[in-house]
Amino acid sequence: MDYLPLFADLKHRPVLVVGGGEIAARKIGLLLSAGAEVFVVAKSLGTEVNKLHQEKALNWLAQEFDTCQLDDIFLVVAATNDSTLNARVFQAANQRRRLINVVDDPARCSFIFPSIIDRSPLVVAISSGGKAPVLARLLREKLEALLPASLGQVAEIAGNWRTRVKQHLHSLSERRYFWERLFDGRFASLVAANRTEEAEVELEQQLYHPASTTGEVTLVGAGPGDPGLLTLHALRAIQQADVVLHDALVTPEILELVRRDATLISVGKRAGSHSVQQEETNQLLVKLAQQGKRVVRLKGGDPFIFGRGGEELEVLVNAGIRYQVVPGITAAAGAAAYAGIPLTHRDHAQSITFITGHCKPESDGVDWSQLAQGHQTLAIYMGTVKASDIQQQLINHGRSASTPVAVISRGTRSDQKVLTGTLSQLHELAREAPTPALLVIGEVAALHQRLNWFGEPAQPSLASQNSPAQWQSVVNLA
C-alpha cells in the first residue's frame, strides 16, 4: 500500500495553496468544503480564485512564495505551472515536516487528493496513488450512481441514535445485527422517500419492538425490456428484495439482476395461456408482506400505465401494508425511441394518446371520433388481437387509410422488429408481428425509415410496395 487512507479534520486549520489558477481553484474548493482556512500565494488570481477572495472565503497572503509562510501551516498544496517553484515548495515543506501535495506530480506528494463521493457525513474516497487518476474518477462515477443521495441523512440519523442503541443493545453482535437490518430495510426506504419523521418512528420500532414489524411492498417498473433502461432505484429494489413477483413481460436479462437468494414468483398474464388471476396476485402480496418480507412487484414498463399498479396499491392500503413505488420507462416511450419514432413532432403530432387494447368487459366504449383526429399519435398497448377492429373504427370515424403506422415487436430487446405501413394495412402488420407488440398510429410512424438507429436497418414501408409478393417479402425480412 503506497498511501495510508486517512480522513483529516481540516476545520479552522490553516492550509497554504501556492498558485491561483484553474487547477488551484479545484483544490481550494475541496479544502473550503472541508472547513479549512485557506491562504493563497500567487502572482495573480484567476477568475474563480479571485471571486472567492472578493467573497472573503480565502486569504491572499502574498504574491511570492517564502519558506517562512509554512511556519504555522497544517497542509501545503503546490498548484502552479512552474515546476521549479513547485519543487522549491516541496523541499521547504519536507524540511518542516509538513504534508505536501504537488498537483500532477506524484513523486512530490506526501499526501494525495482522492476521488470523492460525498454523502456527508458518509464519505467514500478512491485513489490509484496518482498512477491512474482517470481510472479512479471512472470508478467514482460508477459508485456515485449506485449510492443513494439519501445515505448521508441515513448516517446522520443513525449517529443521533447511536448512544440509545448502545444503551439498549449491550453486545456488539446485537448492535451490528440491528444496524444491518435497519440500513437494509424500510428505515432506509423512508429516508430515501424524504419521510424522515416516519423513518425515526421505524427506527424506534425496530429497536424496542422488533417482533411487531411487518414487511413492505415495492412496486417497480422494469421498463420495456432492455436491462440498461432500469432506473437506479429499480436496480436497488430488486437487489434488496426477499421475494419478487414478476410479470411475463419482464425479460430474463432483468431477472438475472435480482438478488441471487431471492424467491422469484411468476404471476404473468398472457393471452391464450394459463395465468395467475389478479385477485390471487393481490392476496399473495399481502400475505408475503405480513410475513415480514421485502416484496418487489416487478412489472414490465411502468406500473401505473396499464399495469394495474393502482389496483394493487389499493389492496395494500386496505390491508395496512406499507409500500413505495419506483416508476419505469413505459413501453410506448422506450419502444418508440428504439424504433426511431418520436411520439411527438412539431411538424406531425402535437399530442400523444396511450390506449390499451384490453379493457374490463363493463368499461365504457372508446371515443373513436376523438382518436381519429389527425396530427396526433396513438400508442396502443396489447392491441394486436384487436388490430382489425382498431383499423376499421379509426377509418370509419375519419382517420385517413393512408395514415402511417408501425408495429414494434419486442421493443428495446436484441430481437426487436419493426413493421411499417399504412392504417389500411394495420391488421396484416399486427397478424405477422411477434408479440409483445406496440401499435403506433400517426404521421410520426413514417419517420422510422429515416431515424431508425437500433437493431436491423429499417425495411421499406409496406405503403411503398405494389404487389402482394413484395409485401410478403418485407414481412419475412422483418
TrEMBL record:
> Could you state one GO biological process linked to this protein?
cobalamin biosynthetic process
Q: Which residues does the record list as Phosphoserine (modified residue)?
A: S128
Q: Which residues are involved in binding NAD(+)?
A: E22, I23, K43, S44
List every stretch annotated Uroporphyrinogen-III C-methyltransferase: 215-478
Q: Name one Pfam family in it.
A: Sirohm_synth_M
InterPro entries recorded: 4pyrrol_Mease, 4pyrrol_Methylase_sf, 4pyrrole_Mease_sub1, 4pyrrole_Mease_sub2, CobA/CysG_C, NAD(P)-bd_dom_sf, Siro_Cobalamin_biosynth, Sirohaem_synt_dimer_dom_sf
Q: Which GO terms describe its molecular function?
A: NAD binding; precorrin-2 dehydrogenase activity; sirohydrochlorin ferrochelatase activity; uroporphyrin-III C-methyltransferase activity
Q: Does the keyword Oxidoreductase apply?
A: yes
* Gene3D superfamilies on file: Cobalt-precorrin-4 Transmethylase, Domain 1 (3.40.1010.10), Methyltransferase, Cobalt-precorrin-4 Transmethylase, Domain 2 (3.30.950.10), NAD(P)-binding Rossmann-like Domain (3.40.50.720), Sirohaem synthase, dimerisation domain (1.10.8.210), Siroheme synthase, domain 2 (3.30.160.110)
Q: Which residues form the active site?
A: D247, K269
Siroheme synthase central domain location, by residue? 120-145
Residue ranges of domain Tetrapyrrole methylase in the record: 217-426
Segments carrying the region annotation (Precorrin-2 dehydrogenase / sirohydrochlorin ferrochelatase) are 1-203
Q: Which EC number(s) does UniProt give?
A: 2.1.1.107, 1.3.1.76, 4.99.1.4
Q: Which residues bind S-adenosyl-L-methionine?
A: P224, G300, G301, D302, I305, T330, A331, M382, G411
Family classification: In the C-terminal section; belongs to the precorrin methyltransferase family. Belongs to the precorrin methyltransferase family.
Function summary: Then it catalyzes the NAD-dependent ring dehydrogenation of precorrin-2 to yield sirohydrochlorin. Finally, it catalyzes the ferrochelation of sirohydrochlorin to yield siroheme.
Concerning PANTHER family, the annotation shows: SIROHEME SYNTHASE, SIROHEME SYNTHASE-RELATED
Q: What is this protein called?
A: Siroheme synthase
Species assigned in the record = Limnobaculum parvum
What is the primary gene name for this protein?
A: cobA
